[in-house]
Amino acid sequence: MSSLTGDSYPPTLDDALERDRLVQTIKDWTIANGLAVRPPPAIAGNDSEGILAMSAPVTLFPSPFPKSCFAEAEAIQTKYNELYARISQDEEFLSGLVQEVAGGDEFIANLWDIHLRVKKEGYVQNLSLGLFRSDYMVHQDGDNLQIKQVEFNTIASSFGGLSAQISLLHKHLAKTEYPLLKDTIPQSSIDLPTNQSAEGLAAGLAAAFHAYGKSTLGHPTCVVFLVQDGERNVFDQRHLEYALQSSDPDTTVPVFRLPFSQILTHTTLAPSSRGRQLLYHPPHNPTLTFEVAVAYFRAGYGPGDYPTPTAWEARYQIERSAAIACPSVLTQLAGMKKVQQVLATPESVASTPSALRRFVSDDDMSHAALWKTFTNIYPLDNATPAGREARRLAADAEECKKYVMKPQREGGGNNFYKTAIPQQLKEIPEAHWGSYILMELITPPPVVNTILRNGALEHGGVICELGVYGTCLWDQATGEVLRNEESGYLLRTKGDQSEEGGVAAGYGCMDSCRLV
Ligand code: ADP
Ligand code: MG
Ligand code: MG
Predict the structure, then answer these.
(1) Which of 58, 69, 77, 243 could join 470 in a cystine, given CB atoms 3.0 to 4.6 angstroms apart?
(2) Mind listing the UniProt keywords for this protein, alphabetically (predicted)?
(3) Measuring CA to CA, which residue among 310, 26, 287 is closest to residue 168?
(4) Which ipTM score applies to this complex?
């Protein structure tokens, strides 16, 4: 397999003085510009005042990334936005898939129950906002390089704030530092795409905020970020908030951060007869009441946020309210790995044609474009030929090495890789295997880079994962799409010995693309 890394790029920085200068520049730039996270207790002690921040892990150089693949991923994003907006509107389709996984997955079953409860009394908000991120790795087939989708995120798609910052950091280094290296890199030789991820996502939030309209109850309207307690990736979220304020200097969009665990403490619902508006009561000033126009979830994507039945009641309160949810329960469920699997299961092995046709007709140009980005993904049920074949592959000590097995989870750290798959299958009842999907591993061309993490350098082979953000606002009842935009990108890079790639989960780091 050929390498994307040229002989002299990125430089290895064998000279300690050169290396130290670059590292110092990065340490200062990252803090000065909020390319930062809150430190874990292992580094900060208990930081009881909550004043410490540290640099996010970053690469010293932007990783080389094929220009054609980058262009393809950007170009297809609006098609993906539309596809997932349509899936969210297809309750019958989602219902069938939920039935397939819910037996072995209480979390998905509980989400579905929330949807059913709200459906019964009637939704009072038809607008739905998606701040999506479609993730890819480059697959090499001979000389042909092709992006293959790792997954599609419909909830809490993170790093849009920090990603814009690392693109700026690498641009700064390309201008001021790389030309001074002994292995000089002229600025003109580095093609760094602009990255509007923070502005793009903020513009999505702003579109929903304005579409909500004025309060009929006479309250000011606001956006609420629903967040996790003790969130370390807080600056990523703050960048979106700041971008939202600076996007339009003439309007103020009040933004509040509300821990998911305190939804029921600080919000109430207006009665159904008046419209079931979600009212936010800021704890710092009891005389104020805001009407929530947009409820933006940066929490609630996994079972850890629902330790008690009360937490599920909190989710129900948001779902049945008039606030535009980002995402709604149905949109969150559209992001199930099971959905991705049924879209991608090749027609030759599935008992029914790929579900992609249900949403995008064969003669639509975007059908072929989307299909090209899929890699093989199989169900693990016992009812279909594809499922039975996948069960054989997953349980085989040799075959399993080509696959990753995924449950219906988000946030990193939940998958089983290669030889861990047969082991995991032994530990779960066979009746529940269908709650997982089996996906072929994508093996991108080798790239070399140096990662700066917790002040230490790690040099070696790395694997890059490109994410493209999309913002979409649509009407669940009419299908009308009010906004559909590609909204910037994320490049996450991990050591090639690591299977998981999440930055927040501690495996990966922030990177940007040098187009080659
Ligand atoms: P999550 O929703 O938890 O982020 P992902 O599907 O993105 O789950 O998987 C987590 C990580 O596992 C990815 O970031 C990637 O590094 C790795 N991974 C997942 N699927 C594949 C695949 N098909 N080929 C190679 N690596 C993969
Ligand atoms: Mg995900
Ligand atoms: Mg992921």
Answers:
(1) 77
(2) ATP-binding, Glutathione biosynthesis, Ligase, Magnesium, Metal-binding, Nucleotide-binding
(3) 26
(4) 1.00
- Residues in the chain predicted with pLDDT less than 70, given as ranges, are 1-7, 347-353, 501-502, 504-506
C-alpha of residue 158 to centroid of ligand 1, in Å: 15
In angstroms, the CA 172 to CA 150 distance is: 30
Q: Which of 34, 103, 275, 411 is catalytic?
A: 411
Q: Is 110 a catalytic residue?
A: no
Q: Ligand 1, closest atom to CA 406?
A: 6
Active site residue 492: yes
Contacts of 189 (CB under 8 A, 6+ apart): none
Contact 356, 393 (CB under 8 A): no
Cis peptide before 39 (omega within 30 of 0): no
Enter the pTM of the model.
0.97
The reply to whether 406 sits in an annotated binding site is yes
Which one of the listed residues 19, 38, 79, 133 is annotated catalytic?
133
Summarize pLDDT for 284-340 with one digit per residue, the tens: 999 999 999 999 999 999 999 999 999 999 999 999 999 999 999 999 999 999 999
Beta bridge partners, 492, equal 465, 510
Q: How many CA atoms lie within 13 A of 333 on its CB side?
A: 31
Cis peptide before 327 (omega within 30 of 0): yes
User: How far is the C-alpha of 204 from the C-alpha of 189, rounded, in Å?
Assistant: 34
